[in-house]
Design brief:
heterodimer, A: 253 residues, alpha/beta, Rossmann fold, 2 domains, six-stranded mixed beta sheet, four-stranded antiparallel beta sheet, 10 helices, B: 364 residues, mainly alpha, two-stranded antiparallel ribbon, 4 strands, 2% strand, globular
Chain lengths: 253, 364
C-alpha cells in the first residue's frame, strides 16, 4: 500500500485553480519527484501535504491517517517533515539550536523541570543533543555548528534547511527545490545527501526540483504537473518518452 | 574534564552535559559568586538611608518587570505596550486581598511570599487572556491589542469603588522571623527579598532558554511558519509567552505594593508601559543581561536628571519649569540615540567586552 495517498485534490484561490483533481501515490522507500514548469502547482502540492494549505476538494491520507485538514505541526508530528524552497530558518539562532528546535516534540519534560533544569530536562537535552550531532555529522556541518544561521552562505543555509527537516526523524521528507540557486558542486553535494537519506536512513523522499538532469538521474517515480494537472507519471524512462510532457516542456512541433 | 577550567582558552568538554553548565569557566563562576557576595554584603557595611534604598528597590522591581517584558518582546518578538497594566494586575491582586480582609490580615503580613506567587499566577492568567489575540494577530496589530488592555485596565481601576477608584489602597507591614519589619529596616529588608527573587528568576530564565520552552519563544520570533513545520503550535507558544511575561509582571506588581505599602493606579499607566519598553530596548532586547542593564541605566539617568534640574532650578526663574521638561526630554533623547547607534542595547557592549577578555592574554 502506498505511504501517502493523494486522491482527487483540488486547490483553488477564488477563480484560480492551483491544483485540479491531482492523484498521486507516494510509495515507501522511493524517491518520488514532482516536476513541471513555473507555476504548475508543485509547491502548492507540497503545501497541501504539509498542512499549510488545505485542499478545497479531495483527500490526502498518510497510511490510514487523514491529513486533509491537519495543521503543519500536526503533520510534522505524524512523521512528514519538509524543507522550504525559500529559506525559512531561525536566522537569529545557531545551527545547533535550529536543529534542536526540530527535536521539539521529542523533548518530553515538564515546564518546572525546565525552569530548574534538573534530572529529566538535563538528561533529555543531552540525549537529543547527541541525536542532533548525528545529523550534523551526516550533513557535514561540523564546522558551522555554533555559527549564527543568518551569517552563513546561501548554499550552507540550504543545507541547514535540509538538515533541520531531517532532524525531525521523519518517515517522509518533502524537499522543495533543495538545489535552487546553487552551483554545480553544491548541487552534486545535495544530490549525494538526498540519495544517502533514502538509502542509509530509509526515508521516503518527495523532491520538487527544476533541474531535469538531477530528477531523471535519481528519481524512482516522477509526476509531471502542468497548470495544476498531472500530465504524466511513471519511471524516468517513461516520462522521457511521454509526448504530453515533451510538449509541456519544449512546445509543439 | 577540561585541561584548563579557568580560562576560555583550552577549556573543552567531553560530554554534552558539561556543555549545559551555566558558567562555562571557573573564572566566570568565581566572579559571579563574588558579585553576589558584594550585592548581599554591602548594605551591612554602608548605610544609605531610606530614600536611596527606595531607589534601589525600585530598580530591582523594574528588573523583575523588564525580565518578563524581555521574554515576550525580546525573545518571542511580540510587542507589548500594556506591560505596566500586568504589573498593576499583580499589585491590585495584593490590594484586593487588603480590601476584602483588611490591610493587616495575617495572610498579608505573614504569608506574603505566597501572596507574591499568587499575584504572579494571576498576572499569568491575565497575560494568557490578553495573549489570545496573538493566535490571529501579528506585529503592530497585536501591539494595539495590548494597548487596549492597558486602557481597559486603567479605566476599570478608576471607575470601580472596590479599587478605591485608583486612590491609594494601603498594605500592612510584613513580618519576618525576627518580628514586624519596622519603618527603619523596611526598604533594606525588601532589598534582600527582591534581590533574592531577581536572582532566582534570572537563573530560571537562564535555564528555560536552554530548553524547548525557551527555544520555542525565539522560534516564533524568527519564523513562525517554520516553527509550525517543526512541530510546535506557534499560536499557543505566543499565548504562553504572554503568560510568562504576565507572571513576572505580577510578581513585580506584588513587590511594588509591599515596598510602597500602598497601591495607586498612577504607577501603572501607559507612561510606565512605555518606560518598561524603553528599559528593555536600552538594555538590549532578546538578552537576559539586558533586563538588568536597562532598568539600572534608565533609573540612574532619571536620578541624574533630577539633580541636574534641581541645580539649574536655583539659577533660572521659576517660570521656566525646567525640571518637568528635562525628564521627558532626556528620556526621549536616550531612546532615540540608542535606537540609532546601538539598537542591540547595553547588552551588546557587555558582549563586546566579554569577547575582548575571552582570549586574554592572547590576541587571537
Amino acid at each position: 500500500m502506498a505511504h501517502l495517498n493523494i486522491s482527487n485534490v483540488t486547490l483553488s484561490f477564488g477563480g484560480l485553480k492551483a491544483l485540479s483533481n491531482v492523484d498521486m501515490k507516494i510509495e515507501p522507500g522511493l524517491i518520488t519527484s514532482i516536476i513541471g514548469p513555473n507555476g504548475a502547482g508543485k509547491t502548492s502540492m507540497l503545501n497541501c501535504i504539509s498542512g499549510f494549505y488545505h485542499p478545497t476538494k479531495g483527500e490526502i491520507y498518510y497510511k490510514d491517517k487523514k491529513l486533509t485538514h491537519a495543521s503543519p505541526h500536526q503533520v510534522s508530528n505524524m512523521g512528514i517533515s519538509r524543507a522550504f524552497q525559500n529559506l525559512e530558518l531561525f536566522s537569529g539562532l545557531s545551527v545547533l539550536d535550529n536543529l534542536l528546535l526540530a527535536r521539539h516534540q521529542n523533548l518530553k519534560y515538564s515546564f518546572l523541570q525546565a525552569v530548574f533544569f534538573y534530572g529529566k530536562a538535563s538528561r533529555i537535552e543531552a540525549e537529543n543533543r547527541a541525536y542532533v550531532e548525528g545529523v550534523i555529522d551526516f550533513m557535514e556541518l561540523e564546522a558551522h555548528r555554533k555559527s549564527l544561521v543568518g551569517n552563513l552562505s546561501y548554499g550552507l543555509q540550504k543545507k541547514v534547511e535540509v538538515a533541520r527537516a531531517l532532524t525531525l526523524a521523519p518517515d517522509i521528507l518533502l524537499l522543495d527545490e533543495p538545489m535552487a540557486g546553487m552551483n554545480q558542486e553544491e548541487k552534486e553535494d545535495i544530490v549525494r545527501f538526498v540519495m544517502d537519506i533514502q538509502k542509509e536512513r530509509n526515508i521516503t523522499v518527495v523532491l520538487v526540483e527544476h533541474d531535469l538532469g538531477v530528477v531523471m538521474d535519481i528519481s524512482d517515480i516522477i509526476y509531471v504537473l502542468d497548470f495544476g494537472e498531472v500530465i504524466g507519471s511513471g519511471t524516468p524512462e517513461e516520462i522521457a518518452q511521454n509526448p504530453k510532457v515533451i510538449e509541456a516542456y519544449i512546445g509543439e512541433d | 574534564m577540561s585541561a584548563n577550567s579557568w580560562l576560555a582558552t583550552g577549556n573543552f568538554f567531553t560530554t554534552y552535559k558539561q556543555e549545559q553548565r551555566t558558567f562555562l569557566t571557573s573564572l566566570d563562576r568565581s566572579f559571579f559568586t563574588l558579585f553576589l557576595v558584594i550585592l548581599f554584603g554591602w548594605p551591612l557595611l554602608f548605610e544609605l538611608g531610606n530614600k536611596n534604598m527606595l531607589v534601589i528597590d525600585n530598580i530591582l522591581i523594574a528588573i523583575v518587570a523588564v525580565m518578563g517584558l524581555n521574554l515576550v518582546t525580546g525573545f518571542a518578538g511580540l510587542i507589548s505596550i500594556g506591560h505596566a497594566a500586568f504589573v498593576g494586575i499583580g499589585a491590585y491582586t495584593v490590594a484586593s486581598f487588603c480590601r476584602t480582609m483588611g490591610d493587616s490580615h495575617i495572610i498579608i503580613t505573614h504569608f506574603w511570599p505566597v501572596l507574591i506567587v499568587v499575584s504572579g499566577l494571576v498576572g499569568a492568567v491575565f497575560g494568557a487572556i490578553v495573549g489570545l489575540p496573538a493566535l490571529r494577530l501579528k506585529h503592530l496589530y497585536l501591539a494595539i491589542a495590548t494597548l487596549s488592555f492597558q486602557m481597559i485596565f486603567e479605566w476599570t481601576i478608576q471607575f470601580m469603588t472596590f479599587f478605591n477608584q485608583g486612590q491609594t489602597i494601603y498594605v500592612g507591614r510584613v513580618f519576618w522571623f525576627t518580628g514586624k519589619v519596622g519603618r527603619k529596616d523596611h526598604y533594606l529588608f525588601w532589598y534582600f527579598i527582591i534581590l533574592t527573587i531577581v536572582i532566582l528568576l534570572g537563573f530560571g530564565i537562564r535555564n528555560l532558554l536552554k530548553t524547548r520552552y525557551g527555544r520555542s519563544l525565539v522560534a516564533v520570533r524568527d519564523n513562525d511558519r517554520a516553527a509550525d513545520a517543526m512541530g510546535m503550535n506557534p499560536g499557543l507558544t505566543k499565548v504562553y509567552a504572554f503568560a510568562l511575561a504576565g507572571f513576572f509582571a505580577g510578581v513585580a506588581g506584588a513587590l511594588h505594593a509591599y515596598v510602597y505599602r500602598g497601591v495607586g493606579f498612577e504607577s501603572f499607566t501607559l507612561h510606565e508601559s512605555i518606560g518598561y519598553l524603553a528599559m528593555a530596548i536600552v538594555g538590549g532586547l532578546g538578552t537576559l543581561n539586558g533586563s538588568f542593564w536597562g532598568p539600572v541605566a534608565i533609573k540612574f539617568l532619571d536620578l541624574q536628571v533630577e539633580t541636574l534640574a534641581e541645580i539649574a532650578g536655583k539659577y533660572l526663574p521659576s517660570s521656566m519649569n525646567l525640571a518637568t521638561a528635562l525628564k521627558p526630554f532626556t528620556f526621549g533623547l536616550v531612546i532615540v540615540l540608542f535606537l540609532m547607534f546601538e539598537p542591540r542595547g547595553i547588552a551588546n557592549w557587555w558582549r563586546i567586552t566579554k569577547s575582548y577578555t575571552k582570549l586574554w592574554p592572547f590576541r587571537y
